[in-house]
């Protein structure tokens, strides 16, 4: 298995390990119903916005570097290894809130207790990044996701205010939806969400 940082396997190297027998450890893994053709976070199921039509599964998964972290189960500083059985792909948000785990069992419980990704967050990231994802370096992808998540949290506050009838928030949500619609149309994709879908 090819690796890079500190002898760690690639994302695809990690996936190769987990593809066999993952059900015993991660019974709710998204792969059980979508397969392995799209890179996803093992905890929340968020799909990394990469081109899934690349020639090989290895190319598809490895292009998700920066969108998905290679997260240690047992923390490296607490005796964990860089072997694939101690690594899982996690999105930036799930990795950021993960406490250092003393054991693999503790980390596996954290992953299995994950709440599925909000469909609006998935749609938002797909709309923002579309098929341009491979043009960013891994470091820049990480920064983009952190910045976008901060904006996402703020947008959720606006959406909640709009649901409560705040007129300024309603106007802001209409602007956000129009921007998303324009981006999708520019990329040849259909966008059908309206403010009514928020109610």
What topology emerges from the helices and strands here?
Blueprint: H1 11-18, H2 22-25, H3 31-34, H4 57-62, E1 68-72, E2 87-91, H5 92-96, H6 104-112, H7 119-129, H8 138-163, H9 167-186
Antiparallel strand pairs: 1-2
Tell me what you see in this structure:
- Helix 8 (138-163) crosses helix 9.
- The chain has a two-stranded antiparallel ribbon.
- The protein is mainly alpha-helical.
- The protein is 47% helix and 5% strand.
Which terms would index this structure?
two-stranded antiparallel sheet, mainly alpha, 9 helices, 199 residues
Strand content: 5-15%
- Uncertain segments of ≥5 residues (pLDDT<50)? none
Rg (C-alpha, Å): 18 Å
The whole-number mean of residue pLDDT values reads 89
How many DSSP-defined strands?
A: 2
Strand order of the largest sheet: 1-2
Q: How many strands, what sense, and barrel or not for the largest sheet?
A: 2 strands, antiparallel
The helical percent reads 40-55%
- Topology as H/E string? HHHHEEHHHHH
What characteristic shape results from the CA principal axes?
A: globular
Distance between the termini: 48 Å
Classification by helices and strands: mainly alpha
User: What is the overall number of helices?
Assistant: 9
């Amino acid at each position: 298995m090819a690796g890079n940082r500190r002898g760690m396997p690639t994302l695809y190297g990690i996936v190769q390990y987990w593809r066999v027998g993952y059900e015993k450890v991660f019974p709710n893994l998204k792969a059980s119903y979508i397969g392995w053709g799209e890179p996803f976070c093992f905890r929340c199921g968020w799909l990394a916005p990469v081109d899934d039509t690349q020639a090989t599964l290895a190319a598809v998964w490895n292009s998700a570097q920066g969108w998905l972290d290679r997260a240690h189960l047992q923390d490296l500083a607490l005796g964990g290894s860089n072997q694939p059985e101690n690594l899982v792909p996690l999105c930036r948000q799930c990795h950021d809130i993960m406490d250092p785990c003393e054991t693999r069992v503790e980390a596996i419980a954290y992953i299995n207790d994950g709440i599925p990704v909000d469909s609006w967050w998935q749609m938002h990231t797909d709309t923002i990044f579309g098929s341009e994802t491979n043009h960013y370096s891994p470091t820049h992808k990480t920064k983009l996701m952190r910045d976008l998540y901060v904006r996402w949290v703020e947008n959720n506050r606006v959406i909640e205010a709009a649901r409560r009838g705040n007129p300024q928030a309603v106007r802001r949500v209409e602007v956000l939806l129009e921007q998303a619609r324009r981006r999708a149309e520019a990329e040849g994709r259909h966008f059908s969400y309206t403010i009514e879908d928020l109610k």
